[in-house]
């Protein structure tokens, strides 16, 4: 299927209107010194004849007639401007991966992407990572899923066009869509204790509840059907539309096929160690699950100065990279007769200071809580358990000083933090490239999910 390029449409300024439009057929006099002869004479004659008549926009007697904005108010004026913008904009037809129903492979389709409305931006996605959250959203165990839907939330691209009222972005900007918006004005954005924004403060889950644009409609259609958005981003489409508060501009020199991981996996894992667990210099840590998020947590523990980092996974093939990124001990629970929490407790002389769970399995969450030190140990939950399962926690564990918390997007205030993380990457403060196992054409999206489910990749990045 060939790639479709949007037609560029330009609105002509009033002074650029043709003489035929401005003068109803008369030619414009280009020489200000030219006398009243030739083509200019009729135009000048009309001007003299009409000088005594009320001009357009004037009442008899010279009073100015109220403009449309004054007649209908600013709201009416903005409405008219929005309608004019939509008339001058164009629907884009492009390639996207649609999940028509749970449990089935993605289908590559041609979709129609409507132009951005007020305070929206249309983005050409260049690269998008494949995350387990996407797989979770189409699994049969996830009952809140809406279909048909365009998934994807770990992307990076270039601004194609902006809707009315957008002032912080322009076409050509390199950007990362954000499933955690930041308006910068609500009580949540202004509070340093959270990275939530009021725009998502009341939703049950960001996985399914950001399924439409803020006005309650979709910008995607396929075969005459409305297609749902996903997490406010939908990066499994060559073009997507996002709210202005769900996008951030980044360094123009940043490689989009690497920094796309900032949209979810890296930011979540790295921030879980630095912002949520608050790993301390000289401390001991245990990271459960060595996918893209878990290995990013290992990087975070190392950056925070941890002296010993246990990396736990049932796939031994991940251990080499884990040690390269900072792990000191790699453990496979299947290699021990004892529960892994007991093994870690013995090896760490009573328990680790910090444990970070990046699997999304309640049994692993329980093990993470049980392997931390009594008195001050902190267990941070990153993974999302399927089917609304709960963590079995004994109140006595909390009474004895163990603490448990969880992270959302690594605790980062998205718009404020992502540009800084990209700058740190550009400054080689951490090795993001090591997390990308494969880079594949977008059409190979189902292969990418197979590689992930089979444990053969850390992150696969799809490029258009």
Distinctive features:
19% strand; 464 residues; seven-stranded mixed beta sheet; alpha/beta; disordered N terminus; single chain
Written description of the protein model:
27% of the residues lie in helices and 19% in strands. With 464 residues, it is of the alpha/beta class. The radius of gyration is 28 Å and the shape is globular. Strands 3, 4, 5, 8, 9, 16 and 17 form a 7-stranded mixed beta sheet that branches. The protein has a 6-stranded parallel beta sheet with strand order 12-11-10-13-14-15, sandwiched between helices. Strands 1-2-6-7 form a 4-stranded antiparallel beta sheet, with no helix packed on it.
Question: What's the gist of this structure?
Answer:
The chain contains 14 helices and 17 strands.
Write the layout of secondary structure elements.
Elements: H1 19-23, H2 40-50, H3 68-88, E1 92-98, E2 107-113, E3 120-129, H4 132-137, E4 155-162, E5 174-177, H5 206-209, E6 220-222, E7 225-227, E8 239-243, E9 247-249, H6 256-259, H7 265-277, E10 284-288, H8 292-304, E11 308-312, H9 319-324, E12 329-331, H10 340-347, E13 354-357, H11 362-370, E14 378-381, H12 395-399, E15 403-406, H13 414-426, E16 436-441, H14 445-453, E17 459-463
Parallel strand pairs: 10-11, 10-13, 11-12, 13-14, 14-15, 16-17
Antiparallel strand pairs: 1-2, 2-6, 3-4, 3-8, 3-17, 4-5, 5-9, 6-7
Helix pairs in contact: 7-8, 10-11
